[in-house]
Design brief:
By secondary structure, the protein is an all-alpha fold. The protein has one domain (6-56). 54% of the residues lie in helices and 0% in strands. It is elongated.
Length: 63
């Protein structure tokens, strides 16, 4: 038996997030939880983390 409260998840996804049925059913439970603001395990991005992302993924290609 499933441990998910499908009626509640469907209400949250279809009514709360206004997902189309095909969008809702294409999500994994983990993706739905993130969209609902649940299960976030890390805090805000630090300046150092932001700088690391900029270095790894620059807006312009290096010549």
């Amino acid at each position: 038996m499933s441990t998910f409260d499908w009626p509640e998840l469907m209400r949250a996804g279809l009514q709360g997030l206004r997902l189309k049925p095909q969008e809702f059913w294409a999500l994994t439970p983990a993706e739905l939880r993130v969209m609902l603001g649940q299960g976030a395990s890390s805090g805000a991005l630090s300046r150092e983390g932001f700088e690391d992302l900029l270095a790894a993924f620059p807006d312009k290609r290096k010549e």
